[in-house]
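Researcher: Please predict.
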Amino acid sequence: MGLYAAKGAVLVAARLGLGHAATRLLLHMALESWDDTDNPGNQPPRRYFASRESSAIALGYLAPDNGSESAYHSVKRAIAELVASGAIERVSSGHRGHNAEFNLLVDSRKLALPPLTGHLTRENVHMGNTRREFTPEYKDEAVKLV
């Protein structure tokens, strides 16, 4: 489902310096959500709406412990860290019979690499189709690797 969202989640977690539990939960959320392009369910992309028990499994609480008070508090702390860091935003709160919903603030587009034409130089090394330049010290390394 959310392969590209999961790749984006790994980068977001590293850039934000998320803790272990928050990183695990963000990756789980990304894998359970739909990407931008691969979305046969026509759901909003990067929308997570699984149960608290499902989130607890991502944090290592297997059944029947995934419904425990300890699991509930672990999920609550991880979600609070994700919201506070800006990795996710709450769409709606959960209540009896309805799960909470969150938007994942990660990129889930399949990024195509630009075609390599001509001679690869330090000046034409780019990442994906965003054309974001590497920093100067990494450009030299990228040219060596290619």
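Model: Residues 69-85 form the longest helix (17 residues).
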